[in-house]
Design goal:
The protein is of the alpha+beta class and 753 residues long. It has 4 domains: 2-40; 80-218, no CATH class; 287-372 and 401-506 and 525-632, DD-peptidase/beta-lactamase superfamily (Beta-lactamase), CATH 3.40.710.10; 654-752, 2-Layer Sandwich (Trypsin Inhibitor V, Chain A). Helix content is 37%, strand content 22%. It is built from 24 helices and 31 strands. The strands form 9 sheets. Strands 2, 3, 6, 7, 10, 19 and 20 form a 7-stranded mixed sheet that branches. Strands 13-12-11-24-23-22 form a 6-stranded antiparallel sheet, sandwiched between helices. It comes from Alistipes shahii WAL 8301.
Length: 753
């Protein structure tokens, strides 16, 4: 018996040991598998990453693109956020049908009044339909919905069992697809109003998400459009492209967790990086001058049926570009900023290049200004190897240097250059002076914005080098962009100091200047003082007795120095007709220059239309000179404190009591209809102030011309009008005529100047 028990016992122990070993082996296998899964299995890591990617997402937080501003801070290009509210109609926050219907009806009425695109009933109907479609209560005994809801719902019910399905009273089916509720995107100011509306002023249970989109806008429209530029599918050019990185800033990032379809919440403590907004770029452009130049050039291009034109206004001592207009003809005959002609068109300039020839003859060849040549009364002549050289006018025969400049004689300068550089074999010295002293063979510093390199030859191993030399003397066989030509003339105005033009003044972030750009000195002096004085006097003579005298002959008000130029264009289009490039460059005041202006226009020879530089480009330059002079009050003589008493020639209207107090002190006499109220003010020829009271009828449009903005706003808004304004100073125009009947809520636009 004992032996049998021992055998049973040992058998049991053996089995226990075997099980023990098996459990140890199983545990070891499980442990090894865990180690493998955690440390070495690529499949598990892949599946984990897939799961995490479905739950978590890294959202890019876009940086706001910097603005491009005028010199006065007016926006030329800026980014604004557009907003759209996307509703989750299956959100738990909308489970209460009573609350939803009350809030939705109120929201529908407010949205209909705000957007005015459809009645409130249409908004309310859409809200109810979207809510019913995405939030449904179904009968659990009707399993047809399971077939439509997919295999996941059917599998879940099978796992829970038939009894579970029978016990349910109802089931909820939710579709969390977001639905846009605004008929269009709204800007920030509109969103600030909309966010106070029902359902939009709370966010319980993720009722909606706000979609933000950064949109680039150009408030000034076509004004300086080619200079400001663009990035995107329609092209990459201008400041927008040249300073793309500075404007773009650096995007941020945030980790977000999926809550429902289309809805994510930020993960607290997740990897987060704030965006860094782009720099604001402050340009040197003066919006006022840009607008005047655009209108003047556009008017001249239309009048002459020209092809394209550019106008540049530059400040002499700083090199800052105050205006740069580039207009080209569209297929329909209108004009738009199609191409940056000022920087990217390198063409034969014609007689404006004679300034370089003048300096070469005076400074390098030491030619006396008394040198006389026969210009043959405009008849064609041969100069060296070049034939058919002629002047565009008749009447001149033997003339000296100064007369040759005033009349823009091709023959005179062709003979002078040939005698000193062609017949003596000094062609290389001529081109060396143009490059090394006048710096005409190099760009002026705007390569980043698309400036094209000029072409002024240094290689005389070409066919007919003598012909090239003669042609160069009066502006052919050389190619310069308008920006390079105005920089050259600006150096003469600046006493010989050539400086690079500046179009971008500084980079800003908020009110802090991060980087400032200033002009660089290309050459401290491009010619001797004697040569500079002589060419400055000659350029003034062009305006008093030469090719620009039709525009600037009167020197009692303002003296101007200028040069005109005309070049016949020889290219593939010449077979279709004669094409010309007409230019004028001027700086003023001639005795103390402050501004340089250039206009270049390309046109085709047409009956009754101009193609010479003076009549073609002169009207635009004249308009710019007059406008700049008339707006610069500091140019006029200052009134001394002593001497006879002087009275104001105009006063602003407004509160009659205040106007009377000012008039009593500053004018000999003030007359008025009423001592109080609001009135217009006029100053007669004897400096007497006449105050005319505004009508008291609130239903009649008052005349607010001559008032300041503060008083005009008060008068108009007190009558219930919605006022928009532009400009500064005193009111000069109003969109509703004085005396017209008005109703509360009517919009009126006033212009100040």
């Amino acid at each position: 018996m004992k032996q049998e028990r021992s055998k049973v016992k040992s058998d049991i122990l053996l089995r226990v040991r075997l099980l023990y070993v098996l459990f140890i082996l199983a545990g070891a296998i499980v442990l090894a598998r865990l180690v493998w899964v955690q440390l070495f299995s690529a499949e598990v890591a892949y599946n984990a990453d897939r799961l995490a990617s479905r739950i978590f997402t890294e959202e890019v937080i876009p940086a706001q693109r910097g603005s491009i501003l005028s010199r006065d801070g007016e926006p030329l290009a800026t980014s604004i956020f557009r907003y759209q509210a996307a509703f989750d109609f299956a959100s738990p926050g909308l489970d209460s049908l009573k609350t939803f219907r009350e809030q939705a009806d109120s929201l529908a009425k407010l949205l209909a009044a705000f957007f005015r695109d459809k009645p409130a009933s249409a908004y309310a109907k859409r809200f109810r339909e979207e809510h019913a479609r995405r939030y449904r209560l179904v009968n659990p005994r009707d399993t047809s919905y399971l077939r439509s809801e997919g295999w996941i719902s059917r599998m879940m019910d099978r796992m829970r069992g038939e009894e579970y399905v029978k016990r349910r009273i109802y089931d909820t089916i939710r579709d969390h697809t977001p639905v846009n509720i605004f008929p269009r995107e709204v800007d920030f100011a509109e969103w600030e109003t909309l966010r106070r509306y029902p359902l939009l002023n709370w966010n319980m249970g993720m009722v909606y998400r706000l979609i933000e989109r950064d949109e680039r806008i150009y408030p000034q429209g076509e004004l300086a459009r080619r200079t400001i530029g663009l990035t995107g599918d329609k092209g990459n050019y201008g400041i927008e492209e040249a300073y793309r990185e500075e404007l773009a800033g650096r995007d941020g990032k945030a980790l977000r967790q999926r809550i429902a379809r289309g809805f994510y919440g930020r993960v607290a403590g997740g990897d987060h990086e704030d965006p860094v907004d782009g720099f604001d770029i402050v340009t040197t452009l003066d919006l006022d001058l840009q607008d005047v130049a655009d209108k003047a050039l556009r008017r001249q291009l239309e009048a002459q049926n020209a092809l394209w034109g550019t106008t540049i206004v530059m400040e002499v001592h700083t090199g800052e570009i105050l205006a740069m207009v580039n207009l080209g003809r569209n297929a329909d005959g209108s004009f738009a900023e199609r191409e940056n002609y000022a920087l990217g068109r390198s063409m034969e300039p014609g007689s404006t290049f004679k300034l370089a020839t003048m300096l070469t003859l005076l400074d390098d060849a030491r030619m006396p200004v008394s040198t006389v040549y026969d210009t043959h009364n405009g008849d064609p002549v041969t100069v060296g190897p070049a034939r058919n050289i002629r002047d565009s006018h008749r009447g001149d025969r033997e003339i000296d240097f100064r007369r040759a400049v005033a009349s823009s004689s091709n023959v005179y300068f062709a003979k002078a250059i040939w005698d000193r550089y062609g017949s003596t074999g000094r062609k290389q010295e001529y081109s060396d002076f143009l490059h090394k002293e006048l710096h005409l063979g190099q760009t002026v510093g705007l390569e980043r914005l698309g400036e094209r390199k000029p072409s002024v030859t240094t290689d005389w191993k070409v066919p007919d080098p003598g012909v090239m030399l003669v042609k160069m003397s009066y502006g052919y066989r050389v190619r310069l962009a308008p920006i390079q030509m105005i920089t050259f003339y600006n150096a003469i105005a600046n006493g010989g100091k050539m400086i690079s033009p500046v179009l971008v003044r500084e980079l800003r972030r908020g009110d802090r200047v991060e980087e400032r750009f200033e002009s660089r000195t290309i050459a401290s002096s491009i010619a001797s003082r004697a040569a500079l004085r002589e060419v400055q006097q000659c350029l003034q003579a062009v305006c008093t007795e030469g090719t620009a005298s039709a525009f600037f002959r009167d020197t009692t008000r303002l003296r101007v120095a200028a040069k005109t130029g005309t070049a016949q264009i020889t290219d593939a289009r010449s077979r279709e007709g004669r094409y010309y490039l007409g230019s004028m460059v001027a700086y003023f005041p001639a005795d103390a220059p402050r501004y340089t202006v250039l206009t270049t226009i390309e046109t085709r020879a047409q009956a009754g239309k101009a193609y010479y530089g003076g009549p073609l480009a002169g009207p635009v330059v004249k308009r710019m000179v007059d406008y700049i002079f008339n707006r610069g009050r500091d140019w006029y003589g200052r009134v001394d404190d002593g001497g006879p008493r002087r009275y104001p020639d105009r006063m602003k209207g407004g509160d009659i009591a205040q106007v009377r107090r000012v008039a009593d002190r500053l004018s000999p006499r003030a007359s008025f209809e009423s001592r109080t109220g609001w009135g217009r003010v006029a100053v007669d020829s004897l400096s007497n102030v006449v105050i005319t009271s505004l009508p008291g009828d609130r239903g009649v449009m008052p005349d607010v011309r001559g008032m300041g903005l503060k008083d005009a706003l008060f008068v108009l808004e007190s009558r219930g009008l919605k006022v928009r304004f532009s400009g500064r100073g005193a009111v000069t125009q109003q969109s509703i005529t004085a005396g017209a009947r008005i109703a509360p809520g009517t919009a009126v636009v006033i212009t100040l100047k």
